[in-house]
């Protein structure tokens, strides 16, 4: 498995230059490192911020599982979407509200066919809310299908 976490990960993360705002590091509550977040007050409604994970060593014709922690905290904070590079227009995963402030786990199967997925994009869309944040952390890529809970 490949650890793409932000504090100690070995992966190549890039901010999208064509979006409306950047994701920023935020300190974890326990003080052990940081995660990437978009505070609710950044930008205007429907503005987008994209953070791209570049995947250079994935083998074709193989399957992978992307596992990540995410949090949508706050009233009407917005949406978090995940896109795979070869399916740019349709998100493979989307969440638009958190039941509470807790971190949850997202899982996405990445099947490598003839085309290789060479990046994963986390997109935050700003909502109407003024408090809270959208956060992503503990991004891990494992080979094989996603494990059952």
UniProtKB/TrEMBL annotation:
**One cellular component term from this protein's GO annotations in UniProt:** membrane
Pinpoint the MAM domain residues.
Answer: 2-148
Sequence intervals crossing the membrane: none
CDD domains, per database record: MAM
The protein, known as: EGFL6 protein
